[in-house]
Amino acid sequence: MLNSRRRSFLLRRAGVGIHHVLAWLVFLFLLAPLLIVVPISFSGGAYLRFPPESYSTQWYEAYFAQDSWINATILSLQIGIVATIISVSVGFLFALGITRGLRSWAPTLEKLAIAPMVVPSIVYSVSMYSLFSSLGLVGNWFGIALAHAILCLPFVVIVLAASLREYDMDQEIAALGLGASRLTAIRRITIPQIRPSLLSAAFLAFITSFDELVVAMFLSGTFGTLPKKMFDNIRLQIDPTIAAVSVMEIVMVILVMAVLLRINRANASRLT
Amino acid sequence: MNALVSSIRGGSLGSVLLISPAMALLVLLFFYPLVMLFLTTLEPGNIQNYANVVGSDTYMRVFLNTLRLAAIVTVIDLLIAYPLAFYICRLTSSGRAIAFFLLLIPLWTSQLVRTYAWMVLLGRNGPINGALMSLDIIDTPLRLSNSEFAVVIGMVHILLPYMVLPIYSSASKIDRSLVEASRGLGAGPVSILTRVLIPLTIHGVLAGVSLVLVLSLGVFIMPALLGGGRVPVIPLLIEQQAGSFLNWAMAGTLSVILLLMVLVVFWLIKLATKLLVRGRLNA
């Protein structure tokens, strides 16, 4: 006979066990789709089949052999880098501004800068199309980079404002007291210390732009970014080239994450 | 020294200069085009579109379907994320690092890649059908893709981290001894959950709910690719009007309505937060 104390102890143990199993099932659910594309990208057949009947690297070769894939990738890299530079530089200044002054206005200003995250990208794209078509900017890659920079800005501001709020400002004050100018203090004291957050912000901005489909669909005109090319490819025919592209993107993300986590180990939660 | 401190903390003029490049970009490339879009839909030739939309059963059905889909996805994500966030809190610091890694890899992987992966998983010859058939649970492949089911799975997958992270951040602040104390005072698991844990995490829950709800209203990729044209949502309608029919006026009107829906949802959740937090203080 179990007494009630022992029974509640066992029940709690069972609860913990179930909790454990469920949590790892959720992680499996999150990762399974990413794992599934790896074998498919090495498929030897001409059609999508799982598991593949034979293995080869033909879909990777197909990617590198086609100018349309390579050009789309280069265009996306180019747009992503420019959008990152713009959003991180104006976002960093903005985060400095709202954490170092403007006390009562800071929350409102931060909300304004985060607004692009909340407005559905299709709504934003329609509004940008009207603006860009009247300026003759549809089909201009720099226009897309500017539009992407707006979409990256919320992530940059969230990450950098959080990091600048935690940062010990006395160090900046000490530098000023020792005769440094404000610019020197920020450049030589503040920036080196929040470098992990700057890198996270830059990575998030780049990923946001590199993965953005809808703005590019509306604004790119005849040429296409990588997501647009992927979208058309998935919609028209499910050929495993897309799996090879996917695997390369996943590997890129994991490599950068591993580097960032190493730099930013103590603040893993900040990487969001 | 005080002058130094205030030059960093107070310096209003400097701060205004610092925020001006970002504000200029936001005003010129975000708020201005949105306001112009709104004003365009109110022009005499276009304003009729609002009446056409509200008077049309087809449009209204798509609106309701969009809201319903967003609600389903949000509820499922909440039910999955809540226990998961607490699970992550209990892990050791290295376990937590792994959990974050597992949570962030999908978050940072292209949405197109993940949508494609779900198309493969749920396809006729996909691994799920394959496994069910080889276990003799079914004879013919199930039609899993090109359905609302597929869209819901894809959206739940893509938006889950947005629910877990805010709940985790409020759950991680809870003092574990509170749970021990309530247990010691005779509270069962249900009352610990409803009277201790949920009130303490309500901010995180509402933040996650508003984020997932709002993002799921605007999702385009999953309905377009996993829905196979069977799951009508407003973003698809907008793309169709603009891309296929070149009816930019109607696309604009629908965009304004979608944006209004997002803002109303936000406002309702803000209201709910206020009421719940006040209710808790009075209790």
TrEMBL record, chain A:
Q: Which PROSITE patterns match?
A: ABC_TM1
Q: Where in the cell is it found?
A: Cell inner membrane; Cell membrane
Q: Which UniProt keywords apply?
A: Cell inner membrane, Cell membrane, Membrane, Transmembrane, Transmembrane helix, Transport
Q: Where is the ABC transmembrane type-1 domain?
A: 73-260
The UniProt entry, under InterPro entries, shows: MetI-like, MetI-like_sf
Specify the superkingdom. Bacteria
Q: Give the way it sits in the membrane.
A: Multi-pass membrane protein
Q: Which residues cross the membrane?
A: 21-48, 68-99, 111-132, 138-162, 197-221, 241-261
User: Which family does the similarity line name?
Assistant: Belongs to the binding-protein-dependent transport system permease family.
Q: What is this protein called?
A: ABC transporter permease
Q: Which organism was this protein described from?
A: Aureimonas populi
Q: What is the lineage of its organism?
A: Bacteria, Pseudomonadati, Pseudomonadota, Alphaproteobacteria, Hyphomicrobiales
Automatic annotation (TrEMBL), chain B:
Q: Identify the main location.
A: membrane
Q: Where does the signal sequence lie?
A: none
Domain of life, per UniProt, equals Bacteria
For this protein, the parts annotated as crossing the membrane are: 12-42, 62-85, 97-117, 149-168, 205-225, 245-269
Bilayer topology term: Multi-pass membrane protein
Q: Name one Pfam family in it.
A: BPD_transp_1
**Occurrences of domain ABC transmembrane type-1 (ranges):** 63-269
The name under which this protein is listed is ABC transporter permease
The record's annotation in Gene3D superfamilies points to:
MetI-like (1.10.3720.10)
Q: Subcellular location, in the record's words?
A: Cell membrane
Family, as annotated: Belongs to the binding-protein-dependent transport system permease family. CysTW subfamily.
**What's in the keyword line of the UniProt record?**
Cell membrane, Membrane, Transmembrane, Transmembrane helix, Transport
